[in-house]
């Protein structure tokens, strides 16, 4: 996508700071070994690749990533897949773990503290604008357009915003705005969220994306750090202060979201539960999915493993390697197995006479003979025993695996090891 000159200039003056330390505890065992931003998505990507790709595609090539919770998998991914920046071009990706940089604190105490603890590093780089991002959402957005709005409106802070159903708004920071998108009120995760003007069924929610002029941000962070009553959080401290004492402006996601010709409406997902993770991945197998990851004008960059193409073998009744309405990644071998509406990550092996429907299989999972799986998420490296049946007996499934209320089963190797087969 070609950016206009002014937007490109502003993006070149900006730095992206990605908050990627979240536990993602609602993903249960899927985040026992990795943080939420390091979770797999879409067959070959990680969740954090979307924020990183948005930054690079927007023309922002100075990036910091703050890590904290079980960060090894995430750091390894960043080192392997995001090492193409060139210092001589004034571009970089800095990995910034919580590392006892200030006083005696080890962990980042909140979202604003994660930036405050690295303020000396950021000041040494000298960006004019800071784009603060969450590293755990799925979407495509041109941040340069958001920076441009920030400059043109003279805002102290610009907040990316999306419309959500009022019953879901309590999970977000919620804004009340006037007709010019000036924020009149900001409440973090309210029990009774304010609705949008003229539409009591919807609320305007924060995406966790903020744009500041850097100098003002540094001043705010130092002021917040000196406040003994702060929670060191953007949504609870920094943003409400600026709404009351400065100029805070909402930026509608629809103004800068990236859509190919196939995407009918803005796409933004928080895949923070097993159900949401399964659904967002399986949705990609639709004939025309809501998210177009095949858009070469806005590529989702990631670490590309060296793998051969997927392979389908055997062609006899009941033992035919086949996939219908499915996505199968490199290195997979479908050996006499039947797939329907499945998404297989790199290196998955499916053996003869097995069948899968609505299965999300993370890298290098193996499904042995005669297994029958329906509506399942299989963690990385899990070996499904021969003959295992999941998705037909809800009571038995709930006894052996983690089963959600909607019927999605999460299977990990530790759960398999406990089976009496």
From TrEMBL:
Glucose-1-phosphate adenylyltransferase/Bifunctional protein GlmU-like C-terminal hexapeptide domain location: 308-411
Q: Name one GO molecular function term.
A: ATP binding
The EC number(s) attached to this protein equal 2.7.7.27
Pfam families named among the record's database cross-references? Hexapep_GlmU, NTP_transferase
Which family is this sequence assigned to? Answer: Belongs to the bacterial/plant glucose-1-phosphate adenylyltransferase family.
Q: Which domain of life is it from?
A: Bacteria
What's its job? Involved in the biosynthesis of ADP-glucose, a building block required for the elongation reactions to produce glycogen. Catalyzes the reaction between ATP and alpha-D-glucose 1-phosphate (G1P) to produce pyrophosphate and ADP-Glc.
Q: Which keywords belong to this entry?
A: ATP-binding, Carbohydrate metabolism, Glycogen biosynthesis, Glycogen metabolism, Nucleotide-binding, Nucleotidyltransferase, Transferase
Q: CDD domains under this entry?
A: ADP_Glucose_PP (cd02508), LbH_G1P_AT_C (cd04651)
Q: What assembly does the database describe for this protein?
A: Homotetramer.
Catalysed transformations (reactions): alpha-D-glucose 1-phosphate + ATP + H(+) = ADP-alpha-D-glucose + diphosphate
Q: Which residues form the Nucleotidyl transferase domain?
A: 16-285
Where in this chain does the entry annotate a coiled-coil region?
none
User: Which InterPro entries does its entry note?
Assistant: ADP-Glc_PPase, ADP_Glu_pyroP_CS, GlgC_bac, GlmU/GlgC-like_hexapep, NTP_transferase_dom, Nucleotide-diphossugar_trans, Trimer_LpxA-like_sf
Mention one GO biological process in which this protein takes part, according to its record. glycogen biosynthetic process
The entry's protein name is Glucose-1-phosphate adenylyltransferase
Q: Which amino acid positions bind alpha-D-glucose 1-phosphate, per UniProt?
A: 108, 173, 188-189, 206
Extract the PROSITE patterns matched here: ADP_GLC_PYROPHOSPH_2, ADP_GLC_PYROPHOSPH_3
Q: Give the species this sequence originates from.
A: Cohaesibacter celericrescens
Site annotation (Could play a key role in the communication between the regulatory and the substrate sites) points to 68, 107
- Do you know which Gene3D superfamilies this protein is assigned to? Hexapeptide repeat proteins, Spore Coat Polysaccharide Biosynthesis Protein SpsA, Chain A
Please state the pathway this protein functions in, per its UniProt record: Glycan biosynthesis; glycogen biosynthesis
């Amino acid at each position: 996508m070609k950016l206009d000159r002014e937007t490109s200039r502003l993006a070149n003056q900006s730095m992206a700071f990605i908050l990627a330390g979240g536990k993602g505890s609602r993903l249960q065992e899927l985040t026992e070994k990795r943080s939420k931003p390091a979770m797999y998505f879409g067959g070959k990507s990680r969740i954090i690749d979307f924020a990183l790709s948005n930054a690079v595609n927007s023309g922002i090539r100075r990036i910091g990533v703050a890590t904290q919770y079980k960060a090894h998998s995430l750091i390894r991914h960043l080192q392997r897949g995001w090492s193409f920046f060139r210092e001589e071009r004034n571009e970089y990706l800095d990995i910034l773990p919580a590392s006892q940089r200030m006083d005696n604190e080890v962990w980042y105490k909140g979202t604003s503290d994660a930036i405050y603890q690295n303020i000396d590093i950021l000041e040494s780089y000298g960006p004019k604008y800071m784009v603060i991002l969450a590293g755990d959402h799925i979407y495509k957005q041109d941040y340069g357009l958001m920076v441009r709005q920030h400059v043109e409106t003279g805002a102290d802070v610009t907040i990316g915003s999306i419309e959500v159903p009022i019953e879901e708004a309590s999970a977000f920071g919620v804004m009340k705005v006037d007709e010019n998108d000036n924020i009149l009120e900001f409440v973090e995760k309210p029990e009774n969220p304010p609705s949008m003007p003229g539409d009591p069924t919807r609320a305007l929610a924060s995406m966790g994306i903020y744009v500041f002029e850097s100098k003002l941000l540094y001043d705010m962070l130092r002021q917040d750090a000196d406040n003994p009553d702060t929670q060191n959080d953007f949504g609870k401290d920094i943003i409400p202060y600026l709404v009351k004492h400065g100029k805070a402006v909402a930026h509608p996601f629809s103004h800068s979201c990236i859509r190919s010709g196939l995407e009918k409406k803005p796409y933004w997902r928080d895949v923070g539960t097993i159900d949401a993770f399964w659904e967002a991945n399986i949705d990609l197998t639709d004939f025309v999915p809501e998210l177009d990851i095949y858009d070469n004008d806005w590529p989702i960059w990631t670490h590309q493993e060296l793998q051969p193409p997927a392979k389908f073998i055997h062609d006899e009744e009941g033992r035919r390697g086949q996939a219908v309405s499915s996505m199968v990644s490199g290195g997979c071998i479908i050996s006499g197995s039947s797939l329907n509406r499945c998404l297989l990550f790199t290196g998955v092996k499916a053996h003869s006479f097995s069948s899968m429907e609505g299965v999300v299989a993370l890298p290098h999972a193996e499904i042995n003979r005669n297994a029958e799986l329906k509506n399942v998420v299989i963690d990385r490296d899990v070996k499904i025993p021969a003959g295992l049946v999941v998705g037909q007996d809800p009571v038995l499934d709930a006894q052996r695996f983690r089963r959600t209320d909607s019927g999605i089963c999460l299977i990990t190797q530790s759960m398999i090891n406990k089976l009496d087969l």
